[in-house]
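User: We ran a pulldown and think these components assemble together. Before we commit to crystallization trials, I'd like a predicted model of the whole complex to look at. Sequences follow.
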Amino acid sequence: MLEWIGLLPAFPLAGFLALVLTRGSLPRRIAGLIGVGSIGLSFLLAALVSIEFLGSGLDSHTQPLWTWMSVGTFTPGFSFYLDGLTVVMLLIISGVGFLIHLYSTGFMADDPGFARFFAYMNLFVASMLVLVLADNLVLLYLGWEGVGLCSYLLIGFWYDNPANGYAARKAFVVTRVGDTSMAIGLFLLFQQLGTLNIQEILTLAPQQWSEGQGMAVAAAALLLGGAVGKSAQLPLQTWLPDAMAGPTPISALIHAATMVTAGVYLIARTHILFELAPSVQLLVAFVGLATLLMAGFTALTQRDIKRILAYSTISQIGYMFLALGVGAWSAAIFHLMTHAFFKALLFLAAGTVILSLHHEHDIFRMGDMRRKLPVAFWSFVIGSAALTALPFTSGFYSKDEILLAALAHPQYGMLLWLGGVLGAFMTALYSFRLVFVVFFGRDNYQEHASHDTHHVSSAIREETGIAMALPLLILGVLSLFGGLIHVPVDAVFAHAGAHEETHPSQLIHTVMILVPIFGVMISYLLYGSRPYEKAGQHLRTQILNSPLGRFLNRFWFSGWGMDALYNFVFVKPFLALAQFNRRDVIDQFYTALAELARISNRALVLTQTGYLRWYAISLVGGLVLVIGIGVWA
Amino acid sequence: MTMLFYLAGAVALISTISVTISTNVVHALVYLIISLLAVAVIFFVLGAPFAAMLEAIVYAGAIMVLFLFAMMMLNLGQATENEEKAWLRPQLWVGPGLLILALLVQLVSVLVTQRVDVVPVEVGVHELSVLLFGPWLLAVELASMLLLAGLIAAYHLAKR
Amino acid sequence: MPSIPYEHGLILAAILFVCGLIGVLTRRNIVFVLMSLEIMLNACGLAFVVGSARWGHADGQIMFLMILTLAAAEVAVGLGLIIQMYRRFHTVDISVLSEMKG
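Assistant: Here's a predicted model for the assembly, 895 residues in total across the polymer chains.
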């Protein structure tokens, strides 16, 4: 069975080709069947492969397919590499991917681009599988760029709105910054170590480089650049909130569960390089910490349901980076997995709400949805509980591991831990703010709808179909009990210096359990229902009206002014430079050439009078000239 | 015989010039027929009786009759003739005339460089036919294709 | 048989050709243009026959036959075009058909 892993990306790729080559001419049922079925087959195969691999007791398995290219000593093979980390990623991608595909058949049912949607989705899954299966960094880079392309295509899926196209371009360009850094990192690794095979790098690097040596630091930092871009961490996080322009299942699959965690995967995969560069590894931790706090505060002020979830995603990936930074590799992967479950659940539930309210995104135009959309409500409650890390949900176990690992950091343990706990508090605050505003309180949608004339239909649509409910159910179960799964990555990180078991005090544990609950309570006080409604509202207005509150609200709402800053620092000067560059000497030369051609054209047009006699005379003139030359010359 | 050549040449020249300056279409056609017949005489003098016959029958006969039929269909009257007179202003002739003169001077200057007297040898129909259906067979076939194409095109173009 | 100066035949052909050419250049009536073309073709035929007599070979006459065929086909198509043009524009003025100017 293990030699069949080449088929894993082949199924979705075949689905993509089938859907693209028929150009949407297939009936919806068939298109949906191909789109979902190919991922389903992939998932089945991934499950079988995983069972066999884990049962076999092997540490890893390499399946060579063919040689990709051969340039001098540089011969990257096209081979797939399987180990515990890959297995986890495979199951997440194909499993969550399958559920989201299934959900999409319901969500996209009325969309004219149905087949196109599934084609892109299949291509995405194929690229993502290549990314995690790759045994060398070039092949990984292929998948890396493939998912970037699909992300671009799917963010701009509804391309008739220019804003979506803009968001897609922004995502593409911003991640390109990180990808360039990563490419340079690959060049550096090849130049220094002479190979790009990941396992060879991981064995060669410690032999060639001593800890903290310049080259190791540079390589790790460049790879970190790539990871930061893909995973939307500071300072390249600005694209992810805008990426919510795509259909909601896209946000669930690509911009929450799988693609954005590719950066985490990359760092975990090349963890030995990062251990050789402790300063970079510490940087990873602080990037994660800063990102999770910044995104947490921003999420608190957003009004768009999907943007809240997007910032929450950024924040959670920040936790994973924090874990990577303190060397808790398996904790990061564990959180990656649980996050994939509950964030996909949250996004899909949000999608149900959005679809029911005819693409309304503003949470303050919702309210009281718990009776109308019970499945979405319970999904949201479970998802938020896991996100908040309430005890015994999946998020609790993973976040617990991360925070304990952070505390164990020899130098900055207390600082990292406190930041993480503050982040957890913020998480509780914003996620339950979402729950309370959307599902409790007054029904603002119908109120608004009766005022607004542009809402043709004010009726709330019922939750639709088993195809949309079943994924929510399964993901809900996984979000609740996913914490009991043991991530089989011990072998992968075995040589990464065994962690000494720390025994934190009872106080630490209590704090970590109580803080999220405390956050939920505050949230209930501010946004919750009846008994405190008046008081909560009063408090809210008071906070918002104080000068500091108003400033912070505006500041956080704009994502800490990062967009404006980048606009000022990069975009404006670049545009000015381009503007200046348009009129330089070389361009002038070419403009003059064009002008010359235009003038000659105008002159020659004069000879074309349309009169037959004129042409005949020209002919005779030419004849006289030629004979004259022949006779007298 | 030499006398006949020059006489026929003169007739051809005069009638051709008359075609060029005539304003009445039918008159011009008659002049053209005379010119063609005069050329047929020259062919005869030069020892090409078959070519002379064809010139008279096909050119002066068939093709010119075709012209005549077309003129009848167009039914150009006095109005066209007056129009023609108005168009043929003297100053119109200056430019083309100079150009043509230059061309003529060139041609003549090339032609008068050597003087060869030709004693015509008659080439009979038999000899010509052997050549036509021998080495020139392909050309004959192509000519027939051309005529067929002309026939179809004319039919199609003149259709209402 | 008395002789005929070879170049005189050719000069006659050249003059006839030039007469036809000036007709093409000056005339606006398309019927006259077509007639002038016939004159030019005929002048070419004459030149070939003269050449045939000069070299005592029949190939020149064959060429004349080809020109004859060409003229017949050309006249048929040309007259068809003239009739069509007259139907559409109610004139035989070639200057009216000057829409293809730059």
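DSSP finds seven helices and one strand in chain B. That may be worth checking against your pulldown data before setting up trials.

User: Thanks, that helps.
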